[in-house]
Amino acid sequence: MVTKELEVWEGDTRRLSLDYQKMPYQHKFVIDVPQPVFLNALAEKLQNYPNATLIRGAAFDDVIEQEDRVVGVTYREGGETKSLFASAVIAADGRYSKVRDKAAVPYNKTPQDRDVIWCKIPIPEGWDKHKYYILLNGAQHVILLPSFPNEYRTGVNIPKGGFAALKKQGIESFYELVDEVNPELGAHMREHIDGWKDLHLLDIFTSKAPLWGKDGLVMIGDSAHTLTPLLGQGVNIAIQDAMTLAPMLAEKVLSSQPVDTAFIRQFQAERQPQVDFVTKMQQRQEKLLCTDSKGLLRARRAYYFILNRLRFMQHHILNQISYKRQRMLAAGKAV
Ligand SMILES: Cc1cc2nc3c(=O)[nH]c(=O)nc-3n(C[C@H](O)[C@H](O)[C@H](O)COP(=O)(O)OP(=O)(O)OC[C@H]3O[C@@H](n4cnc5c(N)ncnc54)[C@H](O)[C@@H]3O)c2cc1C
User: For residue 95, how far is its CA from the centre of ligand 1 (angstroms)?
Assistant: First the structure.
């Protein structure tokens, strides 16, 4: 699904419009690709490499270590446990990374002030299927992300750890949270959300490993640095990690050099600035989105007011997020 614009609304007032169509980039949109489609495209590409073997449907079990160096993994496939030895193991197994835990790579986890309830709803009539909406009312908000084929992936914030209490109050209390922000959307939810089975809790936290791996193991994506879902950057950043790592790793492995902590530091140094930029931006937004303090609400309006008018600020942000990949490609810093 193609997204051409991001809009922030407070009641009937549009506070911010980030219009990708007006940006000086080749691709004036963002695309949301479902994971199975993306994985199948990667699997198809892999067929061009006769030495590559793809094992699908297997579950990682444990790391194999020799003298505190990761030299392979064990995995479960068809009821059997099998071993695989490798010059480098890449952990790309997400926010609850078992590889990270089994290899005992330290990381810090920071809970955020809110959790989010996610659901999918058909795009209501008259709403734009190419716009990413953030709808605000005080500390309450609803995020709408256009999704294939004709849906919004929808996030509604609740206080941290508040899901069980909300469930106890009944489904009407969830609809009322949406009413607070946009009554039309609340009515749409009542029509299309048929109870708690259609709603999923997303525990919002960030995590950060001081070092993205250890000897023999490199972590990328959420296993190295879990972001909040604000502005939908997790997939973007994870893919850019992979794009940066691939050529660096190829050079290392092909020249039979060990994948050690010095290499991981070198890789991390390439990626950390962007991860830090997005993390800081998200932290600021997390604070501004969940506030009901009058001072911060004023600051929020002022921030959107300024950002809405200053195109160079919009460019600066988009250069770091949506367009970083194209800039990396242009600079020959990724494949
Ligand atoms: C509800 C929700 C909504 C989100 N919305 C957005 C969004 O709109 N935009 C955005 O950019 N980001 C979004 N994110 C964040 C985004 O999903 C992640 O940041 C991104 O997917 C991280 O990519 P990754 O490759 O590191 O991990 P993942 O995409 O989580 O991939 C990890 C993979 O590892 C596999 N795996 C895990 N454990 C094992 C095991 N033991 N054995 C074998 N395989 C295993 C999993 O099945 C999965 O396929 C959202 C996250 C959630 C939870």
Answer: 7
* Residue 116 belongs to some domain of the structure: yes
pLDDT by residue (tens digit) across 167-178? 999 999 999 999
pLDDT, tens only, 134-143:
999 999 999 9
The DSSP output letter for 210 is S
Of 10 and 331, the structure prediction assigns the larger pLDDT to 10
Domain count of the fold of the chain: 1
- Give the DSSP H/E element, type plus range, for residue 242: helix 234-254
Given the CA of residue 39, which atom of ligand 1 is nearest to it? 49
> What's the distance, CA 101 to chain centroid?
20
Residue 160, pLDDT > 80, answer yes
Whether 161 is covered by a domain: the verdict is yes
Single out the residue of 326, 315, 233 nearest to residue 280, CA to CA: 233
**Residue count of the chain:** 335
Tens digits of per-residue pLDDT, 13-37?
999 999 988 888 888 888 888 889 9
Give CA–CA dist 20/280, Å, rounded.
22
Q: Which of 89, 208, 222, 244 to mutate to test the pocket of ligand 1 (most atoms within 8 A of CB)?
A: 222
Domain of 120, CATH number, reads 3.30.9.10
Q: Which residue's structure tokens are 């609850």?
A: 96
